[in-house]
Design a protein that fits this description.
The chain is 65% helix and 0% strand. The protein is mostly helical. The N and C termini lie far apart (47 Å).
Amino acid sequence: MGTEKIEPKVFANKVIQQLVQHLLAEDMTIEPKSYALIRSVFRKCHGSWEQLGAGDVWHIELLKKVVTAWGKTPGRVKESERLV
């Protein structure tokens, strides 16, 4: 068995989802367009998914800032709030 290569968008989306759940709320709703927006902003801020995957602290902190800023924008909804 070799190392399974994960498609870049799948890797990025999994990392984004984990950060959202950890930093914001476990039941925060993330729309597909939000994943694309976060990936785009991260790249425009000179973020590198390759470096992030290698554990580079600067890139991890940058993505955390991007995700936190996204989470603070109006309109973010938790799944539990939709049930009310």
